[in-house]
Amino acid sequence: MEYFEDFRKWNSIEDAEHFYRKAGDALEWMQFTGLHDKNGKEIYEGDIVKTLIYEKCSIHEIKAGKLLMSKNGGEYSEATFVGFGVEDSDVNEYLFSPGTTIEIIGNIHENPELLKADEAKNG
C-alpha cells in the first residue's frame, strides 16, 4: 500500500508492501476519513473496524458515499447523509461520537474473512 495525501491506493495484483504501477494494473483508491482509531491509526475507506457502542461490540467496513443514519427524536426515522460510515444505520448515529471506541482490525483487501465471520456469528 502507498499513501498520498489523504488517500491510500491498493493494487490488487502486486503485493501491498511492494507496490509499483504498471500499465493496466487495477487500482482502488481509499480515502482517509480524517479520523483515527483508539490506537491513533488513520481510518480509511475500506478498513474493517471493531466498534464498541454502549457495550455492544460489532464489526463493520468503513464506506464512503450516500448512507443512512437513524434519527432518534420522537419517532424513529432514517436520514440520508453523504460521508463515511457503515451499512448499519443505527451504528452510523454513534459511529464517530466521543463515547464510541473504534479499532481497525484489518481491511477489505487483506482480511475479507473478518466481515464474513461476523455475519455468520450475528446471522
What does this entry show, briefly?
With 123 residues, the chain is mainly β.
Describe the structure.
The protein is mainly beta. It has one domain. 13% of the residues lie in helices and 48% in strands. The protein contains 2 helices and 9 strands, in the order ββββββββαβα. It has a 4-stranded antiparallel β-sheet, with no helix packed on it. The chain has a 3-stranded antiparallel β-sheet with strand order 6-5-9. Strand 3 (27-36) and strand 4 form a beta hairpin. The longest helix has 10 residues, at 113-122. It is globular and about 40 Å long. It starts with a strand and ends with a helix. Residues 13-24 have low confidence and may be disordered.
Q: What's the structural blueprint in terms of helices and strands?
A:
Blueprint: E1 2-4, E2 7-11, E3 27-36, E4 42-44, E5 47-53, E6 56-61, E7 63-71, E8 77-85, H1 89-94, E9 101-107, H2 113-122
Antiparallel strand pairs: 1-2, 2-3, 3-4, 5-6, 5-9, 7-8
